[in-house]
Amino acid sequence: MTERRIPLRVSNQKAYVWDVDDIATLRSQHHICGVLTGTLPHLSQQNVFLGIPLLLIPEEVVLLVEKQLAVLIDDPHAHRVPTQAELDNWNAARAASARLQIAAAETKEASEVSVKAATTEAAQQKRKEREARRAAAARTKALGEGADADDAKAAPPPTAERPSTPSAGPPAYTVSVPVSSAALRWYEPAGCTYTTIEDAREGGIWTYPSDQYERAKCGVYRDLWEKGNFMGGGIKFGGDFLVYPGDPLRYHSHFVASVIDSPIATMKPMEIVAHGRLGTATKKAHLLCGWDDEKQEVSYFSIEWAGFG
């Protein structure tokens, strides 16, 4: 049985994954993490809670397609113009789903309110009993000190109850909506699917890699990936990739990798010093990855700052 290939939906030369199960498969089985880019519609500027879609870096896309683990889909052209009947059915189904979710949320809220009301009544009863005990103790103490019995029987002033906070308006509920286009009747990816990078290049939806340096980055990424590493973007640490020994949620990266696109490329001494100092300052070793395009091989040199004397 042929293994299902994960659809990578391409738009503007960027590849996205919209299915949560596919995102989990990429991470758990194929060591591909990507970057979540989805945000909240009413807080579009926040970047704390990000969700789908998952944006893949170009090297991840090339690797997945070359390993026959994914296919590229020309997403804009996979959506044909829907008919009015299809739009009406889709709107009706979406409205029905929203009503069901709101009804379920209202039922849950009503149950929570009844539980809270019962808890509040029990708390009020306990408070009254506590106040009664305090009043009895105060009377006993007053009588023991020789106070008049009528004065000792005077009831304490009742405790004023806090007014309830008025509701600010009608309740608001969070409604989940499907984000993937796979279930849409007017989504037809069959004629817009590419199984190789060459076919996608001819179709005009994907151009990476287009030069020697980009080919070197793909080669280095593939070699490190085949060694069992997880990879991430390294621009924040002065390199091309971050190299993790396991899932980035559990491990810190051990290396910052910089790609050198030729075995005869030159590096200035100041660059080597800068890489070494920066890597040591961030508690990582800097990895120089030299790509030989003729042999299709990678040679590695690591740099760490060491004290002398």
From TrEMBL:
What is the annotated localization of this protein? Nucleus, Nucleolus
Give one GO biological process term.
mRNA processing
The entry lists its GO molecular-function terms as: nucleic acid binding; tRNA-intron lyase activity
The active-site annotation reads: 244, 252, 284
UniProt keyword GTP-binding, yes or no: no
Q: Which domain of life is it from?
A: Eukaryota
Q: Give the tRNA intron endonuclease catalytic domain ranges.
A: 217-295
Enzyme class of the recorded protein, top EC level? lyase
Domain named TSEN34 N-terminal: residues: 6-75
Alphabetically list the UniProt keywords.
Endonuclease, Hydrolase, Lyase, mRNA processing, Nuclease, Nucleus, tRNA processing
Q: Which GO terms describe its cellular component?
A: nucleolus; tRNA-intron endonuclease complex
Composition bias type Basic and acidic residues, residue spans: 124-134
**Annotated region described as Disordered, given as residue ranges:** 121-172
* Gene3D superfamilies in UniProt: 3.40.1350.10
EC code(s) of this entry: 4.6.1.16
Q: What does this protein do?
A: Constitutes one of the two catalytic subunit of the tRNA-splicing endonuclease complex, a complex responsible for identification and cleavage of the splice sites in pre-tRNA. It cleaves pre-tRNA at the 5'- and 3'-splice sites to release the intron. The products are an intron and two tRNA half-molecules bearing 2',3'-cyclic phosphate and 5'-OH termini. There are no conserved sequences at the splice sites, but the intron is invariably located at the same site in the gene, placing the splice sites an invariant distance from the constant structural features of the tRNA body.
Question: What does the subunit comment say?
Answer: tRNA splicing endonuclease is a heterotetramer composed of TSEN2, TSEN15, TSEN34/LENG5 and TSEN54. tRNA splicing endonuclease complex also contains proteins of the pre-mRNA 3'-end processing machinery such as CLP1, CPSF1, CPSF4 and CSTF2.
Homology family: Belongs to the tRNA-intron endonuclease family.
What name does this protein carry? tRNA-splicing endonuclease subunit Sen34
